[in-house]
Design goal:
Layout: E1 18-21, E2 30-37, E3 42-45, E4 50-55, E5 65-70, E6 72-74, E7 78-81, E8 88-89, E9 91-95, E10 101-105, E11 111-114
Antiparallel strand pairs: 1-2, 1-7, 2-3, 3-6, 4-5, 7-8, 9-10, 10-11
Length: 115
């Protein structure tokens, strides 16, 4: 259970976004974000940073053996790919006239999503 005094930061990268890896063995590759761990500042990207785990047979993994799965990547090592311009850039927050916060691309200034 988390301490109520700990503030968990809010990130500009969300589940379902396309990101590019900036550092590491998968540098330059793009993938879709499967999960964001806000407390640890890590993301899981589809089919990237594959790690191998030796699993004993259990209810979840009946076969056992060597399982390949996505490993976590630090959030500072990924950048968001803008769906409008196709370039990777930082995302900013902008408040619309109706009071809703939206993310926008800092290169092309287009709105990435509503929400």
């Amino acid at each position: 259970m988390q301490d109520p005094k700990v503030v968990v930061p809010k990130f500009k990268v969300r589940k379902g976004d396309t990101v590019v890896i900036m550092i590491g063995k998968d540098r330059g590759k793009t993938g879709k974000v499967l999960e964001v761990e806000r407390a640890k500042g890590r993301v899981f990207v589809e089919k990237l940073n594959i790690i191998k785990r030796h699993m004993k047979p259990s209810q979840r993994h009946r076969q056992g053996g060597i399982i390949e799965k996505e490993g976590p990547i630090n959030l500072s090592n990924v950048k968001l790919v803008c769906p409008n311009c196709g370039k990777f850039s930082r995302a900013g927050m902008r408040r619309m006239e109706d009071g809703q916060n939206v993310r926008y691309c800092k290169k092309c200034s287009e709105i990435i999503d509503h929400g």
